[in-house]
Amino acid sequence: MKQGIKLSFLVLHMGVQLYANNEDHLCKQSLKCSMVHIYEETPPEVSTIGEMFTQGIFYGRLRLNSFAYKWDTEIDKVRKDHAIAAIGGSLIYKSAYYHGFAFSGGLYTTEARGSLTQDESYLYKAGKDTFSRYDRYRDGTRGITTLAEGYLEYRYHDINVKAGRQIFESFLTKSNDTKMIPNTFEGVTFNKHSLFHTDLKIAYLTKQKLRDHADFHHVLAFGDSKENLYDFYSQNDDSAMHKGLTTSKLEAQGIEDRLIVFEGINRSIENLTLHANYTAVPELIASAMVQADYHIHTAGWAVIPGVRYMQQFDEGAGAIGGANLKGLTSGYKNKESLDSALFGARVDVVNDGFKLRFAYTDVADKGDIVAPWRGFPTGGFTRAMGQYNWYANTKSYMMQLDYAFESIPDFKVISRFAVQDFDDKKIGVQADSTVFTLDLAKRFNEDRLYVKTRYAHVMGDSGTVSSSSLTKLNPSYDEIRVEINYLF
After folding, report:
1. Whole-model pTM above 0.90?
2. 3-state SS class at 136
3. Distance CA 152, CA 97 (A)
4. Which domain holds residue 9?
5. What span, in angstroms and rounded, lies between the C-alpha atoms of 81 and 69?
6. I need a labelling partner for 488 at 20 to 30 A (CA). Which of 40, 211, 284, 420 fits?
7. Half-sphere exposure of 330 (CA within 13 A, CB side)
8. Quick one: pLDDT band at residue 195, thresholds 50, 70, 90?
9. CA–CA separation, 98 vs 43, rounded Å?
10. What pLDDT digit, counting tens, does each position of 295-346 carry?
11. Nearest partner of 125 among 483, 477, 414, 482, judged by Cα
């Protein structure tokens, strides 16, 4: 095309989030099933600096998301039914490679309109990631425009190094691009493909930008500035953030929160995938995870059992913030310890466009799991849409059915049924619930256009009384989402 700049398509994979170690049969058939950015065409290696620019590629997307959320019981100033819609998109530029060096930038934007007033913006559940609550309260801004990606890159054979703002996918760090703007990080990352049959990832991340933020912020610190009325929305205010790890407490102890990740995926044994991850914020928290998935093939079917074990090590965070993510430690055995563990087991039965999954997870009766980086500890096992089921002493059971219709090309259905058994004694966790979700996704026009609808129905207990003699809120609600993406 003109001046040698070519347009290509950024493939935005749809559906259930699948970790890299789970070589799902449905994904092998169609690489459209995870929420990771995959570039169908990448820029070439060139011989001059000028060609780095002229042989670069733009990737564009237009996007519409809408959400409706209805509580079983509304509560004044706590819960209110709502609807919200947003329109936006992204423009990503990747330069060509000159002696292995390149650069990339990604500009994202979203503009939202909803049924709640500015003062009620904290009540949004569905769709709260379509705008910045911090900016909305400060000056009434209804959207976000941000340079979420901007990095220098070097590649040599199967080695890739990036420095700057970027997406980094690992066990606990994800782009989680299900709404308008992905979750990204600032830092340095290293990727090595096939080192002794092992894919290796290393990252040192200094900042994070959640999906509902315009600016980069702390990776593990909750804002609490007394001078800024809305500061608790300015730092890591993710739903899974430990609210007791505040900026003032960390500054008082001289702790600079930095995220370190080591991850390896090994496939040296036929049909066996081994996945190991170590994620740490020094002086605060660390975790180690190992997972094994084994593929058994017979008569056109595949049976894939898998197990996951995660150990969390408290390196000082518990003494600062307590055992519960909200600071509500009633019912916890050791109120100042975040030592914990998680066990998960699953089995997939797969044949062509059909997949049936049975899964179970069990969190130790110790501290809550800390994971506010949009990678979910129970993801790929028992996490259903919008659910956080990695609090202490939580047992979850899930059945998932996926089906890609042969009679309707590029149409896929994903349904989940989950039972979540939380600890009734702990005031800091929700009441038990049963969850049903249904996803319908259809691609058109050679994958340039896709439409996706998601529905969730949550049935919660209404009379759960904690050890503090307080009745927990009924978590029942209905939610529906509609998403339209056009890639150019």
Report:
1. yes
2. helix
3. 11
4. 2-487
5. 6
6. 211
7. 12
8. confident
9. 10
10. 999 988 999 999 999 999 999 999 999 999 999 999 999 999 999 999 999 9
11. 477
pLDDT of residue 16: 30
How many domains does one find in the chain? 1
Q: Kindly report the CATH number assigned to the domain that includes residue 111.
A: 2.40.160.10
Helix (H/G/I), strand (E/B), else coil: 457:
strand
- Contact assessment for residue 173 and residue 373, using Cβ atoms and an 8 Å cutoff: yes
Nearest CA-CA partner of 211 in 178, 240, 242, 189 = 178
DSSP 135: H
Cβ burial, residue 250 (10 Å; 0-12/13-18/19+): buried
* Res 23 pLDDT > 80: no
pLDDT of residue 379 exceeding 70: yes
- Distance between CA 413 and CA 466 in Å, rounded? 38
Task: Residue 270: count other Cβ atoms within 10 Å of its Cβ.
Answer: 7
pLDDT at 1 over 90: no
Tokens of 384: 């259903």
Is-contact 273 293, C-beta < 8 A? yes
Q: What is the pLDDT of residue 114?
A: 96
Q: Select from 235, 239, 161 the least CA-distant residue to 204.
A: 161
Q: Average pLDDT of 449-463?
A: 95
Q: Are strands 97-98 and 45-46 parallel, antiparallel or unpaired?
A: parallel
Q: Are 374 and 238 in contact (CB under 8 A)?
A: yes
Q: Is the dihedral of CA 152, 222, 83, 432 positive or negative?
A: positive
- The answer on pLDDT for 72 being more than 70 is yes
Structure tokens at 145: 């425009």
d(CA 475, CA 430) in angstroms, rounded, equals: 7
Pull the structure tokens for residue 355.
Answer: 């997949």
Helices (H) then strands (E): counts for the chain: 5, 24
CA distances from 208 to 284, 313, 426 (A): 17, 22, 30
User: Which DSSP helix (H) or strand (E) runs through 8?
Assistant: strand 6-8
How many whole angstroms separate alpha carbon 45 and alpha carbon 94?
12
Place of tokens 């659910």: 387
Closest by alpha carbon to 245, among 133, 358, 322? 322
- Using CA atoms, how far residue 66 sits from 86, 97, 120, 249, 279, in Å, is 6, 38, 18, 38, 34
